[in-house]
Amino acid sequence: MRRARFPTDLTGKSVLDIGTCNGGLAFEAERRGAARVVAVDIYPTDHFGFDRLAEHFGSNAQFVRASAYELPTIFEEPFDVVAFFGVLYHLRHPLLGLDAVRRVSSGEVFIETAVADGPPGTAKFFRRREYGDDSSNWFVPTADTLLDWCASSGFDAEITDTWGERAALHCRVTDGPPEYETLSYEVAIDVTVDLTPIPERRH
Questions:
Q1: What is the pTM of this model?
Q2: Cα separation of 22 and 50, whole Å?
Q3: How far is Cα of residue 107 from the mean position of the Cα atoms in its chain?
Q4: Residue 187's pLDDT band (boundaries 50, 70, 90)?
């Protein structure tokens, strides 16, 4: 959160935590004064212990089981602040994911993700378990490519920190339609995903 320059004061803000895992960021957003916190993950609340920690902290955070792609079909009102940490490289369709995040954002988006070395405009694709011995890792862009992806999806983005093969970004939603809609015949896509059951991954 510090590397991404996540706000220390969220008083009165609505916060969406995509890929919440055990809810650490969601609970911290509450502590920082957020008026509404929604935590999203593809796994149920007991998979990483979100339910137990929410009870322990007396949290009012709402948990929604969904994929990043589904968000525009779930939420009618955009969020002031969106956290998108550790998710992008797990998406087979990263631009669809960023497009969905843009559609549920009205202000700031904070991203943390994997980045790769390579020429500008490129990303590495991992078909099986080549990256981190994890079959859920698909695309890892260069830092320049990541900024271009964000700009195309309608964000004014800057990289706030890099370390190892990771990067943190601070993004603001641009005025008007996303850039890609002004350049192409493509339009935003609504996606509905059946998430039950999700088999356990064996590593």
A1: 0.94
A2: 4
A3: 14
A4: confident
